[in-house]
Amino acid sequence: MKAVFTVVLGLAMAGPVAAENFTTAAEVKPILEMTKANWVAVREFNGQDLLYFTHLESWRCGLDQIRYFVNEGKPRVREMEPCHEDSNTPNALLLEDHLPFDVHPLGSIDSVTVEVTFDDGEVALETFERAAVKMH
Length: 136
Hints:
single chain, mainly beta, Immunoglobulin-like, three-stranded antiparallel β-sheet, globular
């Protein structure tokens, strides 16, 4: 019998990747840990700062909540598109009624602290300076 290995972001996984994969904290935590630098991005567009959560939302099926703080301000809860568990691609972003960014005044974001709560209750916290996550 031939073994099947799939490589996802440098992780070798035995067996084929199925739709049920990457929908729990156990499956998405290692990926998000390795890709922390991509959790958020800031883009200056049309006289505004757009704060993107695309990367985190792409792994949202293993998350309970995303909270964030701009410049150490009040916490905000990021609304996420639902997980499409009835689909072959449950983490796909359909973007029908939901955009992967929040709008802020131009130049107003100096830093962003992101608090991710996984579906197993574990919390990960990371702070990003504007220069480190600004899209060019």
